[in-house]
Amino acid sequence: MRSFGSDNHAPVHPAVMEAIAAANVDSAISYGDDPLTAAAESLFKVHFGPDAEAFLVFNGSAANVLALESVVRSYESVICAASAHVYTDECGAAERYVGIKLVPVPTVDGKLTVESVSAAAWGWGDQHHVQPRVVSITQSTELGTRYSVDEVQALAEWAHERDMVLHMDGARLSNAAAALGVGLADVSTACGVDVLSFGGTKNGLLGAEAVVFLRPEFAAGFLFLRKQAMQLASKMRYPAAQFVALLTDDLWRRNADHANRMAARLAGEVARLPGVRVTRPVEANAVFAVLPPEVGTALQASYPFYVWDEGSYEVRWMTSFDTTDDDVDGFVAELRRLLAQRDVAARPADSHAHVS
Length: 356
Known about the structure:
By secondary structure, the chain is of the alpha/beta class. The chain has 13 helices and eleven strands. α2 runs parallel beside α10 (237-246).
């Protein structure tokens, strides 16, 4: 099976698996007091700046929710896109475990702007109104688009002028940075992001994510929040070894570059097929398209993927570090075959009636 459903469906990168195996010798002090965790924390400082404080967790939901908990009080709010993962796909975790008020903002492309955030942020000083505290953006977005460096910086400046915090859900930050041709810090630290949820699982790791504080004062107390939320690994050397592999010799960039190239190639090929319409810009490793529902259903039998919008039958195809040219060619060939089969079935039968 070759899946285009999610970059989460991909296996662990071989170099990462080798790093796990290499860590699996002898004894090591638990709960992060080991040399590999220290090495991973040092690499986060290399990539995000000397003030960066990184804490490893198991999954992206925890990274997002704990990052927000560290900077939000119960009477404060988080402004996010209506398509944001923290709003649509965390099963209400932010509300349930932290009591955070999420304020969703409708967008066309998954991106917040200074104008749209300004319209959603109000009520400062009014004891009857939740107090705006955080702007949360996703890079790259749930709709496959990416923020430019200038766009992130503009949102950070707007937030900081109002003593607000900019959080970035960076589950696919590597894909965005690679597509922009910049480093990880260039589109986060250097732009004024305050706290970052940094994704590893979607880029070749095994259950390893991180919360990175780019303003150290926000990290105070996070050791206790992480433990309280049951996200402190006893054998921390194993997730740490994965981040050492990812952040060494630009493995993060090579993986993301490849996934992005495969998405661009897939989009270019399917756009030539009659009956298929690519619906959104392909700016990272996601392709959104509309196609006949019966064709999509048949295609899923060979190449699993998700339907994004049942009403319009807009689908999402994701590529990853292990997607190959042959995978793309096979996917396109099967889609072409199913479209042709549908066209043949739709043709009216030839009439051979005789008039006497």
